[in-house]
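Technical annex B. To support the medicinal chemistry partners, we prepared a structural model of the target in complex with guanosine-5'-monophosphate, based solely on the information shown next.
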Amino acid sequence: MTLPSGRSGLLLVISSPSGAGKTTLARRLAGEFDLHFSVSYTTREPRKDEVQGEDYHFVSPERFAQMVEGRQFAEWAMVHGNQYGTSMATVNTSLANGGDCLFDVDYQGGRQIRRLWPAESVLCFILPPSMGELERRLRQRATDTSDAIERRLAMAHEELAHYGEYDYLVVNDNLDQAYAKLRAIYVAAGCTRVRNDALAQALLREAATRTPCPKP
Ligand code: ADP
Ligand code: 5GP
């Protein structure tokens, strides 16, 4: 199946240490383009302002375990002491409709998505400008307890250590500039030859059947 433009769908994965800005950037991209944001399942408690079914599907550990058992996740992982998972049905439906899908997942999720859909996956890692700024953002976001913030800062090293598995690195210093880079990556990923091969082939076939113009 193909997009109206004639190209096949892609899976854009965005990862980063917690607080680097991936959710901010991902939401902005999904707001500008016809890009389906994959809403993950998690056993984490909702933060204030988070909406059930929009930010996450918040589920009990028992429900999460049932979903694992029922093979309903394309991937799932334990991150910062909670479980998070990507719905297999969401990805399959998006690809079957020729649409693009956006994932805000950790490096374990990115790795699994690439393993399952190597041709469709584009992996982008968001870097903070410095570790000091990462900590400042986590604290000013004020959504986590100070214990949770410490845990997230401690995990930043583990997440950063996997930047080498990603296709693109974007430093999120100035938000508008970082967004312009992420946007450019997404637009360019949609223009690769493999994603537009069906359209090029159709044009080639049509061109071959045209009667040649009479010579002047
Ligand atoms: P993540 O999803 O990676 O944990 P968020 O998108 O929640 O990070 O961003 C963490 C905090 O930093 C939020 O309060 C967000 O508004 C802020 N933030 C994001 N990008 C920038 C930026 N470029 N400059 C300053 N603050 C930012
Ligand atoms: P947060 O609790 O801050 O929303 O997310 C914590 C971490 O879990 C982030 O690194 C985020 O990208 C990751 N995450 C969110 N959803 C998923 C998912 O479905 N799978 C995996 N592997 N990681 C996820």
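Notes passed to the chemistry partners:
Residues 16, 18-24, 137, 140-141, 172, 175, 178 surround adenosine-5'-diphosphate (ligand 1) (CB under 6 Å).
Strands lie at 11-15, 35-37, 41-42, 57-58, 73-79, 82-87, 100-104, 121-127, 168-171.
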